[in-house]
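Researcher: Next entry in the queue.
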Amino acid sequence: MHAVTYELIKKDEKTKARRGRIHTPHGDIETPVFMPVGTAATVKAMRPEEVKELGASIILSNTYHLYLRPGHELVREAGGLHKFMNWDRAILTDSGGFQVFSLGDLRKISEEGVAFRSHIDGSKHFFTPEKSIEVQNALGSDIIMAFDECAPYPAERDYIKRSLERTTRWLARCKEAHKNTETQSLFGIMQGGMYQDLRHQSAMEIVEMDLPGYAIGGLSVGEPKDVMYEVLDYCVDYLPENKPRYLMGVGSPDCLFEGVERGIDMFDCVLPTRIARNGMAMTSGGRVSIKNAQYERDFSPLDAECDCYTCKNYSRAYLRHLFKSNEILSSMLLTNHNLHFLVNMMGKIRESIEEDRFSEYKKSFYAKYGRF
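Model: Structure for this entry, 372 residues:
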């Protein structure tokens, strides 16, 4: 019996969208779900209590960053990541693969693993599938991700094929190294770039290992959105219906809708928190750049249709003042709003699937939100 299991509740009549529930040792997750990112054991500019108040049932933290600072053994000593960061709901940890492969010249790939230099102090490190699992076992997250090779876009077919086959071999090593099977579940990651036959090969190889969940990696890495959607169309069909499907690194409203329409259950992205720190808000009428001069004397709420803490208490004029003054409260209030916006949107998506009106809700949302 896996520590994490999936329950399919309802399938949309017109699309591949589906309503489900993921059961974890730290509570249930209603799907489709957007997971706020707490890279270094904190969702930037948010207290854990605030993230819970928004309705988030799971957050994502990162193995690479926590391994470098403060170190996984310290987190283990503190009682695990949940206790360390005062979060009693589910946690998913990324394997660190994406971050390591993003280091470019600072890393070197071999069959055994990846040698890299820390982006913090330049110190040398070596990550293997076994090391990634060791770190994640110490962190104690509910869902741990396999250490994979995240290929760039674009890339030659031969490279993508070698890469996905190495990812499969690394997944087998991850599964062998994973010890805390009663409290943590290991998800595999499909690779294969933009090549349909290679995506199918990757899916068949990882599904054969009978894991409790599967992610689609190697997308949202620079390819046009229409290409990503085309790849998603067939990727989902290669994954089992009775396991959760996770699209990594996606968080804009349009990508969330398009992913749900194609059968994705889980999403994560730093987008809502990152753009908040840069003065950008997601609203029912589209994106708002609070730094614009037009909001200097705008005493209306950020979004009249939103009931988040920010919109109930502060005006656009005040938010602009905070941002222009470089006040920390600007990031706090805009982050609160953006995460509330996406969590609330996903709740409405779940309702629309239950009521067989997902396509209608998507159409009405797009009409109001405007250009992405």
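Model: The CA atoms of residues 38 and 44 lie 7 Å apart.
Researcher: Noted, moving on.
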